[in-house]
Amino acid sequence: MFKRIIQSFVRRRSEIVTSRIEKYLSKSGKILDIGSGSGDVTFVIKSRGYNVTPVDVADFHGPRLVEPVIYDGKKLPFKDKTFDTALLLMVLHHTPNPELILLEAIRVAKELVIIETSYESSISKIHTVIADAIGNLRLEAFWNSYKTDDKWRELFRKLGLKFADSQKYKDRIFGLPFLHILYYVN
Known about the structure:
Elements: H1 2-21, E1 30-34, H2 40-47, E2 51-57, E3 69-71, E4 83-89, H3 98-108, E5 109-118, H4 122-135, H5 149-158, E6 163-173, E7 176-185
């Protein structure tokens, strides 16, 4: 019963995420889903007629809906500008070096759609890190990889990215509030 509740939640969450990013995707383009995890979002995007390739590190902690290309978490196994769009959906704060992942995404894709968990105060950062660590039991929490909107924007500008759009969403996940920010950059 608990497993079905979780699966239903993840499926619904994947539909919401896909609906938020879909206007930035092209059915004629090639999409790379970096850090695809269980593949739930990739599965929904594919079911809507998009050409998407999932990629993730080898040590994912659960069953997958789609088989990803496995990589070392450092260098993506694709040629420069292979993809029209790269997705980084709630991935960067789970890495010790978000800049490295972003540089690889920039190398292999023409534009990026990023959704990141963010915070607005020191208290909300503590809440976000603890709640995210509990929600992702086996994923590491990298304290310095959680950033405010201003710090994410500063990092993107440092890497030469230009903002085409951004949106903030206040979500409740298992009753806990989270701030998610979508960035569409190129």
